[in-house]
Structures are given as C-alpha cells and as structure tokens.
Design a protein that fits this description.
The protein is α/β, with parallel strands linked by helices and 379 residues long. The protein has eight helices and 16 strands. A hairpin with a 4-residue loop joins strand 15 and strand 16. Strands 11-10-9-8-7-6-12-13-14 form a nine-stranded mixed beta sheet, covered by helices on one side. It has a three-stranded antiparallel beta sheet with strand order 2-3-4. Strands 1-5 form a two-stranded antiparallel ribbon.
Length: 379
Amino acid sequence: MHFRLNPECYLIVGGARGAIYDLIDEKIYDLNQHETKLVIHCEKNKPVRGDEELLCDLKQRRLGNFYSNIPYIQKLRAGSPYLENEGDPPALYRAFLEINNECNRDCWFCGYHGIKRSLGCIGCNKWDESGETLGQERWKEIIDELKDLDCRDIYITGGDLTLVWDRAIEILDYAKGKFKNIYMTLHQRSLSPGKINYLNKKANLIIQTDDPSAVQVTDFAILLIVTPESWKAVDDIRGKNMRLDFVIKDKSILSNDIPIISKKKILPVNLFQFQNNLEYHPCLGHTLAINYNGKVTPCPMMRKYSFGVVGDKELYTVFQAQWETINKFWKLNLNEIEKCTGCEFRYSCDDCRALEDSLTGRLTGKMLCSYNPTEGDWM
C-alpha cells in the first residue's frame, strides 16, 4: 500500500517539523516530527500500512489518498514554467509613486523622525532629504512607462497630498484605467466629505491614522498606527478594513503574541502566491518605489538602496543598467533569510525586509519572529 499527497498539496520540511500546504482550500497543516517523517516516507513512494491513523486522517481531509501501486503524482502548477524567458520584460506587479514630500504636520510616527514601522510603505511620510520633486509631466510619463511594463497596481503617496491636491488628482485621473488597482494615502485629519466623494470609485483610499475612533469611513482601507503597548486595545476591531502598523524600536519591548511576531503572521496562501514565494520575496518581489526626487528604490522605506534616478531618463533604462541588483532584491525569498531558511512556514509567512534590515542592520537579518525552526516551537 502507498500513500501520496494530492497534486494541490505540498509538503514543506523545516529544521524539526513540516507543514502541508493545501493550495486549493488555502489551509496549512503543521506536523510534528513523527508525522513529518511519515509523510516524507510516503512522498518517496515507500510502502505504508493502510490503517495508519495520520494517513487516514489526511485522506478524510482530502489531502491525499492510498494507492495499491506506486503512483505518479504531478504537482499542481499555475501557468507554464516557461512563461518568464530571458529577454522578456520584468514582471512588475506594483509601484509606489511618491509624488510629494510636503507636510505641515509633525506626526510622531513619520519617516521624518526615522521611526521603524511595519507598514510604513503604504502610509504617509515625509523625508529629510535633498532634491526637488519631479514635475507633473514627468510623473505622467512614468505612469505611461509603468503601463508599458504591465505594472498591475500603483500606490500614490507622499507627505500630505491635500497640500498638492490639484497635482494629486490630475495624476490620479491620468492613471485611471491604466492599472488593475490604484491606491492613494491620505491622513485622517486631511479627509473631507468632498475629497472622499471625489475619490470614490477612482482609487482605493488608505487612511493614515493613530486614532481609529476618529475614522467614520468603513468602505475604505484603513491604515492603523498603534504602539506596541496598546495593540490589544484594537484587536477586537480588526477585520473592518483595518491594517495594524506596528511601531517598533526594539524586539525586547514586544510581546511574543503580537501578529508581527507570533503564529498569527502565518497566512494561508493560494497556488499563485505559493509559487511566487518559492522564488520571490513576498513583499519586495516585483516591486519598485519611485521617490519624490526620482530615485528608484526597492521599497519606500528602504531609501539607502538606490537603483538609479529617473528624473531625465526612462524607467526601462534603470532596469537595463541595474537588473542584476533589482533581481537580487526581488528574489530575496525567505530561503535566503537568516532563520527562515529552515522554517516550514517560509512560503506562507509575512516578512517586512525594510523593517528587519532597519532593526538588524543586515539585508538578510531576522529579528521579528518567535518561532524556533530548529526546535519546532513557538516561544
């Protein structure tokens, strides 16, 4: 008798344990050491007993099946393995357009103060940097260049966009219809009924706030800033289009059960996400940021890394000149990250390289995780 996992189920082995990824139902089943060894045994087409309790349970959950003869199981894939060929344009999924760097506020969580945040990339920030903001026509050219590169999503960000509202809505209107999704970040105190009505059906609004009780809009994405000490106070209102943005100075002040550190960071993945995460970083992969002064970086928060400047040259020239470096960031999957490389959850884990790099001083460093893959224990 033989037992094999179904084509849509992948076994990922860590340092001590393993996990089964069900990519159809988007579930993850963690295994202990004995269970991991047994499933490895099965995946090597070695014989087993038909009454093995674990295997019967896996069959009942429709994760695998018994076979009287050695089966050949072709794992499920999405698309063709030959889709990305040498010479093809890069697969650019999302781009951040930082069209402004002006703001009259002095928010405590702003990038101007060097605050370390887990979701600062989609929030509003201003920066203590030199350089003039790119002109309006250049931003329109960049939008066309991104469309030519088949970019899927763009994020319009930068300082307080209401200070340059005419510029912002002109860019938004120009980009409308060119991308699958357009996101725009505004501070909660800058919102008005008129602006909300204007943005309706034109952009997905990300509201920057550190006071969720002051936000009355529930049909838009809300970016929520919380301190490590008070994150539990808003845990009961998660799910109402809210994202928790953790402000972190040092891991030592954080509880091991907050989502950015604990098992809550393990998110079920579908087939496309899983295949992407096998090769690419879940956040940096297929992503670029164009800073207000034209500097191209891996992420809005990773400003010390630069791929070039597009003030007076087309974006594709940056890819031509710096593709090897860009690809290094894109393909920094969690196999390449310290501690993650031996973790069975590495293809379903959320990871912020900007934050980890800032905290550890290493591009491959890892601080924000309470899992020990060599022992298979959550601390």
